[in-house]
Amino acid sequence: MHTEHTIETPHQRQNRHKAMEAISVINALKEDFKFPIQSMGYFYDLFETVYCRHEPLHEGKVKIGTMCIQIPSEIIYALDGVPIRLCNGFYTDDEIGSDLLPQKSCPLVKATVGWFASDNFSDKPDITFSPTTCDQKTKAGAIIESFGHTVIDVGFPRTKESEESHHYWRESVKSFAVKLSKFQGKKLTRSNLESAIKKIGYAQSLYHKLTEFRKNKAVPILGVDMFLVTNAFFFDKIDEWIGAVEKLVAELEQRASAGVNVAGKASPRIVYTGSPPIFPNYKIPLIIEQSDAVIVADETCSSNRMFNDMVAVDEWNLYDMIDSVSDKYLKACTCPIFTQNDDRIRRIIQLVRSYSGDGVIYQAFAGCQVYEMEQRSVLAAMEREGIPILYIESDYSPSQHGQLTTRVEAFVESLKNRKRMKK
Amino acid sequence: MRYFVGIDIGSTAIKISVADENKNLVGHKISASGSMFYKYAQEALGELLRELGIEEKEVVYTVATGYGRKLFKEADENVSEITANAIGAQQAAKSYGEIKTIINIGGQDSKAISLDAEGNVVNFAMNDRCAAGTGKFLDVVAMNLEIGVDELSDYHFKSVGTPLSISSTCAVFAESEIIGLLGNNHSVEDIVSGVHYSIAKRIVKLVKRIGVKENVYFDGGPALNDGLVSAIENELGHKIFVPEYPQITTSYGAAVLACDAFMCE
Amino acid sequence: MRIFTFKMQTAMILVLMSISLFADNLLWLDEIKKKSCCKGADQESGIKEFVIKKGTLQENKKEHDCKNAVIYIRDMDRVVTEHNVSGGKISFTPEYKGGYRLYFEQKSVHEGVLYVNLSSLRVYNKEGNISQSLLKEIRGKTNDSHYDHEPLSQLSFELVMEKPIKKHHINCCLYSGDIAPFRVYYKGDIQKEIPLRVSMESGWSNVVQPDQEGLVSFEIPRNSYAETEKDKKHSEKMIVEASYDVNESGVYDGGQYRSVHYVMTLPLSFAPSPLEYESRTLGFATAIGVMLVFSLGLYYNRRRKRKTPKEIYFDEE
Amino acid sequence: MTKNKFSLRRSVNNMNLVRFRFWFQIVAFVLIVYGGYIGLDLGNKLPTFACVFNGEGTGGKCYVGELQHDLKHPLEGFVGFAGYAFLISLGMFMVWFWALNKGWCGFVCPLGTMQDWLTMVREKSKIRYSEYSWANRGKIKSIKYILLILLLLLPVMIANSVFGLPKLPNGLSMPFCDICPGRMMIPAFTGHFNQFYIDFSSKTDLVMTTLGMIIVGLFLVGSFVKKRFFCYFCPMAALQYVFSKPALLKLYKDGAKCTRCGDCYRACDMDILEIADDVTSKNLVTEDCTLCLKCVAACPEEGCLEANFMGATIFESTKEGFILRMAMDQRGEKHAH
User: Fold this and answer.
1) What is the pTM of this model?
2) Which partner from A366, C43, C269, D244 sits 20 to 30 angstroms from D14, CA to CA?
């Protein structure tokens, strides 16, 4: 009666686990909401290809792993590399990483470490650059290195107000560029950096076009879909990403003129902030949007913070372009690792105003200390401004789903009531 | 001849095994459990003995186990199903070799038992949530998919896509989830394999709680489902041993215990 | 561009020939300079005073006989006012801040000849009347040229100085080495054949002949007298003079005349060329030297900061 | 995106400021430096370096020169006409200045334009620019006030004995003009290089003209490597800043919209940190600001920075404009400069 089965290798098992995680999120995005967007199909397929079928995207290319948004992808593209952002949202990898890191670590870092520990990549980075942003990422770099990967630290300052930190970061970026160009055996030139800057600038301008639609009264695109689009930028071929987003913009333009609204009439508009939702950890965004609210804007490093600020060059020469690129990643950053971070609070308030948000949902990963610590000041500021805010702590495990849903739903309903009272 | 009877009164079925003096399995019977399980148990025992041509007085020692063991007054002794399962598994797997870990999926619970070198129970864990990851759950799934429980295995191996996991741990919620998936035209095969993997993951988590050791023995009704076996093997990462009659391991263990008890006297 | 040629030889001959043509008793206008800085506030601060002087610059005699003399004053808006002269002193109160031109005319009949003595002088007024000059102050007119003015219609004969060709940077004054061009007008027409006599405080004197267009121009000679030893910027006076005879008969002031003799003087002052105490070569050298030192300093400073890998792995192309 | 696709406002906001400013500066330069040849005379109270020494070419004259001239009077004189003329001049200067505010520096000043041209040459020759460190910049800021005080005080001290000190020599009558590089550079554009000299007639003249030559040398190299090198020291800027508050043209910032990304600071020739970091003030015309509006052009936030004339927005930052100016509106490498 019993047949002999071939048993999966650990990598196959890991892949299957990740595929199962991925597919359920993709399916939820595809199926749980009204008025699906046709051109989102590209992104669903992309994520299925990469995370369910594990097919490599960049065969034959040199892949440059980045641990945070602070590693300038402009320079990587200019030097013919493909940046792969290694922030990971898989519970599967989080579990692997849990064995290697303290219990109370950030799940994102655990997942990234777990990913490297298992050494199971469809597009394995040939070299990884790790900016010294938060403590956990910084230390994670060293742990990853111990697995036999090449990890190079790129010094990142913890303040952005002082001249010293500007200077330090500019020098860091320069030495990063030198190291990468040695690694690639290619010179960084005016023309290749300029075209890389413009290409990424164009990609960012497309993102801005997308977000513009979300200011409309009838929101034509869901927040989770936006997260997926921006998430794809972590690893996708940039030209294809641009092509797909161009189509998406065109479709949204139609939808906007037709007044298509993916949310309900009374759905509260949410501004999402906090630890980055990285595919497939769309737990909270999905709960929010499944609870009849709609995310109209976000302040996270997987989406808005990554795209919002564009490189501004004054003199299109190499010396100024490199400095402009470095400044983009330091000055505008609202990461909570900075000692003083009023900018983030102001940004959230501004997002609430310009996207006419009804409330803010602040999600922090359990173990993501800086977000957890900044929570108080943000909550206090929102209270001063009269903006309702919900603070949620969560991790990658699927277990808290019910409890989280209840909390979010209660918040959403209170927002609805507020809206009605105002009327 | 003296015979020993082990009787396992579970939530979904009553399993009876008869062993001889050499602890070999002479015969077994499975009959549905139910509200009148005491009566059913007596009837089933009578029927089995009749089939085997064994007279009642030849049965010298009876051991009851399972949820309903205390209610079976005729038994000479009661043992917990953990002990019975451990002994039965070791007896049944003699040809296979040493057993270190036992996975048991019953109708309404699932267990993992770890044994030491002498075959004593060192540790065990049971699922802490309702019917999730049990035989009952599989029944519900099969019913919703409108296929037979015995067909699940075939569907599992036919699956080509990514298994669609069921996130709800509760059988009742899972039901609606499955209906949703069907509504979105996902293939039954992927759903089935997804269900299997969801159960398998949960089981493996249970096993990991007590510390996985090699030589895993898998019994209980769902062990008949080859798809689930494969899923658990994949999750565990190594082969597991499934006995010929996975459902009766516990009752067989009880019969072996009865033999031992009688011999000691 | 007009090319000025200074024909030395012809000039020398002409000096000898025509020296008799010019009258010795020249009349010219002179401003009485007040010691303005030291005097402090006085009630007369707005008043400008002039005297008529007679004879050569060296003589510097005051002429008190100002019979039949008229003063025309033309302001920067070309408005002409007429004043009579009484006594040897001429005074007027300019209303506005800016440049004025004074014209002096005196006619007399002597032995059947009508002598017309003319002189013109530029005056700069530093201060004006508060209530009168509001608009002009706001306007802040800057281009009231000292030279290049059209002849005054009230005068039949006039010597006009045109814009000089300057060899130096300061716009306001004449310097030795500048080329000063003059024209002579008679009843609005340019007279092309009238030579000019130039005489200076230092005693230097010359007669200059006009070119074909009637432009009389000469280079103001470098002067080298003792005063410049003490004050390098000491200025010197000179008088440019033209005379013209017309056969015209008439009666003036009871006297019959058969011909008219016009004499016009233009008192000017000039300073020694700044080139005598300035060095452009050194100026340029200093500027270029500073540039070299500064840029070399910057270059080495940058080179010191630059790290070697930069040169290998960055490429501005 | 905006509904009215072809509105004037939108095209103004999308304009290429660098090109606009380049041509505007050329026109202004021609008018100021050569305007006199076509009879232009804007008076002698211009709040910009229209150099007196440029002779008949100049289309107007610099007020700093006039100011020094006006102040060389006995103090008693200020009760009468001199004081009156001084006030009128100052008033007229303010009227001129209020029209454009510091825009005179960024758009009109011929000396500023010259520095911008030198910057362009440097940019084309791919030489890196220099920057002052933040600490040095703070110190440098005060120099222009010192110069302003000196140029106000020295002429007065020539005509008067202040605090019983002996009167200064007449060679200091135009102390700032002596050292102003505009005196040498602006006439050079009408073919007059005669301002490059060292005057040996007196000690004062010798010192002042030598200083002038040194400064013009520093100016030429300095403004080649540092954007708007001289403007940090310009006493005109200091004088202007005193009257800057009621000016009509303003640079406004909406701090709430600011992300402090620093793009404006990067673009700023004068390295004004406040433009990026100050999120509370509305009026961002600081002492060093030349109102060149490069910051507005470099700001990617919708309506965060704006040039405002008497309450009416004339040019404001937009995302679209930013993207166009950075040539990020199209994919591909078509834009390589």
Assistant:
1) 0.85
2) D244
